[in-house]
Amino acid sequence: MEPVDGNAIGGLLLSVFGSEQTDVVVTCAHCGAGGVMAGCVVYLGGPGTVVRCRSCDGQLMVFVQRGAVTCVDLLGVQ
Amino acid sequence: MAGTAVRGRLTWRPVTAAQVFTETPRVRTIILDVRDWSGHLPGQHVDVRLTAADGYQAERAYSIASAPGEPLALSVERLDDGEVSAYLAGELRPGDQFEIRGPIGGYFVWRGEGPVLLVAGGSGVVPFRAMLRERLRSRLDVPVRMLYSSRNWDEVIYRSELAAPEPGVQVAQTLTRSQPAGWTGYARRVDAAMLADIAWPVSRDPLAFVCGPTPFVEKVAGALTGLGYPPRRVRTERFGGMGGG
What is the predicted pLDDT for the residue at A28? Predict the structure, then answer.
């Protein structure tokens, strides 16, 4: 599945964090590169939503939805 | 920091398709009847959610094609593997209902700054229609230059609107695969030389918006950086579509 970018999960991020996130700067815990959330690489096709760093392809975040609950893994974000 | 979160303030609301227009063989514009719409900024999108009879749900983000204050419109390109777009750009009829949430987005939005460069590949032109209509409705005199890449003439979205731009708006088009007789626009993929022709000089402190399929956006954003555009003045939106050459 061809990736999209962080703009496409603006709604998911807004529902999880309660405020607009696409213009927030995130720093990759793997390579230290920083950039706006909107610029991150996003894969929507799998069982969860995977967000990767545009510089090193490291995994930044994973979101898995289970009914009304969203499980959030932010281990790749500094 | 792993954990769970309860859904926030963004809520799904029912909408009805009031009108449906065919833009191209693959793209339709849907005018939505939505109650108590709070308004939006040009460039923002909504999430669309479809629910099947068995409860299966599919969601997808679509750029808003209308200016704030106009009836809410989405233009949707039918993708071969798109379960949501196959319905919205195919089977949907006026009177059909589905759900949306939004407006969404704080990065790929235009707040009236300028001069503006808009570079679109395929259905990446949709958010730019919202920007151009907002410019007209709010009588903004921000100068705009737009470069729009399509594969062929039949796939050009908003053809009649773009043929007669407002004063202060310049629209250049390129058709990458085939061109009709008498075509006077560009006839190749967007490249650095084309952008050098169209783009505002960096000395004007322009703001660029680039929207299209991922490879298109990467190429254009890279070329604009090469022309001296600071990365923070190049706002990008990539989607999984196929148009744009």
Answer: 98
CA–chain centroid gap for B101, Å, is: 17
A38 and B2 within 8 Å at the Cβ level: the answer is no
Cβ–Cβ gap A71/B47 under 8 Å:
no
Integer CA distances (angstroms), B83 to A8, B80, B88, B98, in order:
16, 8, 9, 14
Query: Is B79 within 8 Å of B241 (Cβ atoms)?
Result: yes
pTM (two decimals): 0.94
Rounded to whole angstroms, the Cα distance separating B213 from B238 reads 5
ipTM of the complex, rounded to two decimals: 0.93
Q: Select from B57, B37, B64, B48 the least CA-distant residue to B99.
A: B48
Residue B97 and residue B140 in one domain: no
Can you say how many angstroms the Cα of residue B122 is from the centroid of all Cα atoms in its chain?
9
Split at pLDDT 50, 70, 90, the class of B4 is very low
Q: Which residues of B touch A11 (CB under 8 A)?
A: 10, 46-47, 59, 61, 101-102, 104
Residue B55 exposed, middle or buried by CB count within 10 Å (0-12, 13-18, 19+): exposed
SS3 assignment, position B54: coil
Residue B90 sits in a domain of what CATH number? 2.40.30.10
Q: Does residue B245 lie in a domain region?
A: no
Tell me how far the alpha carbon of residue B31 is from its chain's centroid.
15
Residue of B nearest to A36 (CA): B107
In this complex, the residue of B8, B107, B235 whose CB is nearest that of residue A18 is B8
**Residue A35's pLDDT is what?**
94
Among candidate residues B104, B126, B143, the one where a domain is terminated: B104
